[in-house]
């Protein structure tokens, strides 16, 4: 991706200026907004490649802005905030943040994380639905369903659960090591093997409840496999 556009939504001018300086130095284009409402308007009008979003903002707070973005599309979002509590981080990730950085931060780290998120997300548009047994995944619409016709059930997945499901579905029957799933699917701040286990456990429970029992299985000492046991 050449010269990606970064939208910085930050109400402290000094921090916004520092981030702009470091992003521009690395070849990015930038635009800034000092409150949530203006930031959301810039997002709708400019369609940036990635958004750096503070939580405590005038107008609309970062959670509201993130939720509004997620109702429209899956533009990558990195939350940058002074809130270091785990519940704040989990709420941001649950709503759909791709990553989370706590102030005070090293601006080089923010740029590095932005590059990592863009590497994970670039090229995901225009992909064909993936089908494994009764499971259908639309990577662009962020929708996963089980069954067909009147019996079709839509899975209510978190962003990370969907990432894991789509990533494994791209190579059905292959066994994925936990470390690979961490690198490919989890935000930087969530990158622990046991966190993968928790997400996969929730994902397996949701698949089973929708009628796709046995589709996602563990391989002892290695990782996980997504495969149609009837295929």
CATH structural fold name of the largest domain: Rossmann fold
In CATH terms, the superfamily of the largest domain is Response regulator
Rg calculated over all Cα atoms: 19 Å
Measured by DSSP, the beta-strand proportion falls in 15-25%
Distance between the termini: 38 Å
Number of helices: 8
Q: Write out the strand line-up for the largest beta sheet, numbering strands in chain order.
A: 2-1-3-4-5
Structural class: alpha/beta
Number of strands: 12
Query: How helical, in percent, are the residues?
Result: 40-55%
Write down the overall mean pLDDT: 86
What key attributes describe this structure?
alpha/beta; 231 residues; Arc Repressor Mutant, subunit A; four-stranded antiparallel beta sheet; 12 strands; elongated; five-stranded parallel beta sheet; Rossmann fold; 20% strand
Which helices and strands appear, and what pairs or packs with what?
Blueprint: E1 5-9, H1 13-25, E2 29-33, H2 36-46, E3 50-53, H3 62-70, E4 77-81, H4 86-95, E5 99-102, H5 107-121, E6 130-132, E7 135-138, E8 143-146, E9 153-154, H6 159-169, E10 175-177, H7 178-185, H8 193-209, E11 216-219, E12 223-226
Parallel strand pairs: 1-2, 1-3, 3-4, 4-5
Antiparallel strand pairs: 6-7, 7-8, 8-9, 10-12, 11-12
């Amino acid at each position: 991706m050449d010269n990606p556009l970064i939208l910085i939504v930050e109400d402290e001018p000094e921090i916004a200026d520092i981030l702009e300086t470091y992003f521009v130095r690395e070849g990015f284009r930038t635009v800034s907004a000092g409150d949530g409402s203006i930031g959301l308007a810039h997002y709708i009008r400019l369609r940036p490649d990635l958004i750096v979003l503070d939580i405590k903002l005038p107008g609309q707070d970062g959670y509201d802005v993130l939720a509004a973005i997620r109702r429209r599309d899956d533009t990558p979002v990195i939350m940058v905030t002074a809130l270091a509590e785990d519940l704040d981080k989990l709420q941001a990730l649950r709503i759909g943040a791709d990553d989370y950085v706590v102030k005070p931060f090293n601006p080089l780290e923010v740029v590095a994380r932005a590059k990592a998120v863009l590497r994970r997300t670039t090229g995901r548009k225009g992909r064909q639905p993936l089908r494994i047994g009764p499971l259908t995944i639309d990577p662009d619409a962020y929708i996963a369903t089980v069954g067909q016709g009147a019996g079709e059930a839509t899975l209510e997945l978190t962003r990370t659960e969907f990432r894991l499901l789509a990533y494994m579905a791209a190579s059905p029957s292959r066994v994925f090591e936990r470390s690979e799933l961490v690198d490919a699917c989890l935000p930087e701040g969530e990158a622990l093997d046991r966190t993968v286990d928790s997400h996969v456990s929730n994902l397996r429970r949701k698949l089973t409840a929708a009628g796709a029992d046995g589709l996602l299985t563990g391989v002892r000492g290695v990782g996980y496999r997504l495969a149609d046991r009837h295929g």
